[in-house]
Design brief:
Elements: H1 3-27, H2 35-38, H3 42-54, H4 56-60, H5 65-91
Helix pairs in contact: 1-3, 1-5, 3-5
């Protein structure tokens, strides 16, 4: 299972969803159209939720609850690793 690839896909999907939310809020005259971006963890949280759904079979194939928790932790850490790499790239 390539967790980093899954994390990248899910972060892209989450960022697209955030942009859609902002466009909707702007179109509807919301006073704070950038609210999802004001919460720094919003996109990664959505990405982790998406990733858990995309790899649900892999998570459920774990032999024990502890192993499932460990897999879920590895998946979440992959999302944060990609976030960190993107932040480093952005910072130059």
């Amino acid at each position: 299972m390539d967790l980093l690839a899954e994390a990248e896909v899910c972060l892209g999907l989450a960022a697209d969803e955030a942009a859609r939310v902002v466009r909707w809020r702007l179109a509807n005259g919301h006073p704070e159209p950038l609210e999802p971006f004001a919460v720094w963890w919003w996109v990664p949280t959505v990405a982790m939720n998406l990733a858990a759904v995309r790899v649900a079979g892999w998570l459920l194939d774990a032999g024990t609850e502890d192993e499932r928790d460990e897999r879920e932790h590895l998946l979440n850490m992959a999302v944060w690793e990609v976030v960190g790499e993107a932040a480093d790239e952005y910072a130059g």
